Hints:
This protein has 15 helices and no strands. The protein has 294 residues and is mostly helical. Helix 3 (57-65) crosses helix 15 and helix 4 packs antiparallel against helix 12.
Amino acid sequence: MESSTTISASRPAVRAKAAREPFLARFVLISIALVFLGLFLVVPLAAVFTEAFAKGWRVYLAAIREPEAMSAVRLTVLVALISVPLNAVFGVAAAWAIARFEFPGKSVLVTLIDLPFAVSPVVAGLMFVLLFGAQGTFGPWLDRHDWQIVFATPGIVLATVFVTFPFVARELIPLMQSQGSDDEEAAIVLGASGWQMFRRVTLPNIRWGLLYGIILCNARAMGEFGAVSVVSGHIRGLTNTLPLHVEILYNEYQFSAAFAVASLLTILALVTLALKSLVEWRFGIRRKAGGTNH
């Protein structure tokens, strides 16, 4: 068996050999990747904008300026403004607890953070209906106090927070675990308070990972459909977010308007990708299989 020193010394040679794969093999693999990306990413994106502008700028602008569309934009932004900061605070707290402390149930907490990835968004929406709906667990109590959660903005916020809360935490946990706690312990030894340590040591070390998670969280919050669809009630001009408004327009055969509104979400997705790439490029954040983000 080769020693670890021999293996380490041979890695550059192995990588160089892998980079000298036959031209045909590289050509086939690259072609498959480009064709796949073209069919499933580029063509659909181009189709959205083509259909959105098929009847001209006036129709496009009229669809976006329509009162119900503007209401959907405002609600989508409002939900994101509430849910993303909540998830940022939760993500930092959860990552701090998991990365810095050992406590009973730690593995359970890590598993629960991943729960929204495993549960269908529609099922998540149904859970909130069963809890806060008129016939749900807390429904009669909420009704007596004239509080409406389901089929109103609070229900949409709750559903969005649920489906998006892993994004920030999942970015910060491996980052904080890889950084260790040496800097924070040194700050405490030098006399810093807990808040000073967090503000001057912890937060600067995780700020770009935090920004990365917030970008992904915001994109999901604005584009969420399944859970929001269940708890919203599809009330025009009141509880329809942008994805729901697109669905309504499409079902009513208003294709140009549907694609015009959908183009707003597409632009949001492209801006998100640009910001994500900027963060990765500027500060060296790289996703690697089995690795961590820095």
